[in-house]
Amino acid sequence: MLRRNTAAFIEANPLQVALIPRIPVKTGTGTTLTDQPPRPLQTFRLIDQSAPTGTQPGTVVGADGRQRKVEFQLLGNYDAQMGRYDYWVDSDGVRLELAELLPDNGYERRAQVVRYG
């Protein structure tokens, strides 16, 4: 039942995205994140967390070491493929990155999303 409710919630305002995973690669001067081939196109729901009447999320340290405020959560079905540091660029050229994955509960996948730009 929880999986069906999650799917219905996503379908009420869907967002189709092909997330681009990044993996850490050691270099001579440290570690850098390197883009990998995009994941398959998936359907998610992007949930705004910055509304003044909603919760006020904390800051997270991004891949570049700077602190940013989490602005969204990305909600996917239980079998959604996503990873920390995955990103996509929206139609306006704004980059959105998965800063943290929330614990897997078996019926949905969630990630905190930070907007860059």
Features:
single chain, 117 residues, mainly beta, six-stranded antiparallel beta sheet, two-stranded antiparallel ribbon, 9% helix
Structure in words:
- By secondary structure, this protein is mostly beta strands.
- Helices cover 9% and strands 45% of the residues.
- The protein is built from one helix and ten strands.
- The chain has one helix at residues 2-11; strands at 15-17, 22-27, 30-35, 42-48, 59-61, 67-69, 72-77, 87-89, 95-101, 108-116.
- The chain has a six-stranded antiparallel β-sheet with strand order 1-4-7-10-9-8. The chain has a two-stranded antiparallel sheet with strand order 2-3. A two-stranded antiparallel ribbon has the order 5-6.
- A hairpin with a 5-residue loop joins strand 5 and strand 6.
- The longest helix has 10 residues, at 2-11.
